[in-house]
Specification:
Blueprint (H helix, E strand, L loop, with lengths): L2 H20 L6 H7 L27 H12 L3 E3 L1 E2 L2 E2 L1 E4 L8 E8 L4 H4 L7 E4 L29 E5 L15 E5 L5 E6 L4 H6 L6 E7 L2 E7 L4 E5 L3
Parallel strand pairs: 6-8
Antiparallel strand pairs: 1-5, 2-3, 4-5, 5-7, 7-8, 9-10, 10-11, 11-12
Length: 236
């Protein structure tokens, strides 16, 4: 083979090799993968967050447990009311946070009114007959001017301790407390808030337990509005 034909043959082989390398189906596997656009992953639609799992129901409290919780919050400022030597109380989830609360009938101790009504006291005093509940049918509602109620000498009130966590009102960190005027009445038991037509019409933010009572010879119930306690006569 002449030198000219040899160089021509070499040039032909190189050109053929370059053509084969550039062909779409003949590139190496790694090069092919690098040149292919990967599909965009689509995450599954977000699922609704499940509601909180109800906490286990606590066993009925002992008299000693009720006394300990009452003294932890109120010290010597209040006296728990008794009947036949037993403290008058009722338990339930009154504010709808899945933690058990307790309500205890009480009255001021002698000489303790200033401490009870102090603005620095560790509880909120409110009047169940003056609780403001916005009209759900109106877009804009102007609330009345808030009042600061006080507890009078020998006045019976309902002391409510909101629970905290699984141990509820037993928990030492359970400190949110209300002294509710016009709510110290005999207990008839508790019931779901939505069992009352009046409450269903209010469209309140939480489902709770209500305290059924007899006040001034009339049946009714005490319920949590979302920010305080209100008393409502039973319908029908």
């Amino acid at each position: 083979m002449s030198r000219a034909k040899f160089f021509l043959f070499i040039a032909f082989v190189l050109a053929a090799a370059l053509f084969v390398a550039a062909a779409p189906g003949c590139s190496s596997n790694s090069s092919h993968q690098a040149g292919v656009e990967k599909p965009i992953s689509v995450s599954a639609p977000s699922q609704p967050v499940p509601s909180a799992t109800p906490l286990p129901k606590l066993p009925p409290p002992s008299e000693a447990e009720v006394k300990a919780a009452f003294h932890r919050i109120f010290g010597e400022d209040l006296i728990a009311q008794t009947d036949g030597g037993h403290i008058l109380f009722i338990v339930g989830d009154f504010n709808g946070d899945q933690s058990e609360d307790i309500a205890i009938l009480a009255r001021p101790a002698t000489g303790k009114l200033d401490d009870i009504n102090s603005e620095f006291a560790n509880w909120i005093i409110q009047d169940a007959d003056k609780a403001f509940i916005p009209n759900s049918s109106k877009a804009v509602v102007k609330p009345p001017k808030p009042e600061t109620p006080t507890i009078a000498k020998n006045e019976e009130v309902l002391a409510i301790i909101h629970g905290f966590g699984a141990s509820g009102w037993h928990n030492p960190d359970a400190r949110q407390t209300y002294l509710v005027k016009h709510a110290a009445a005999p207990f008839l038991g508790i019931a779901p808030s939505l069992s009352q037509k009046a409450i269903r019409a209010m469209h309140l933010p939480h489902e709770t337990d209500i305290i059924k009572q007899v006040r001034n010879n009339r049946k009714g119930f005490l319920f949590w509005t979302g920010s305080l306690y209100a008393w409502h006569p039973e319908q029908g």
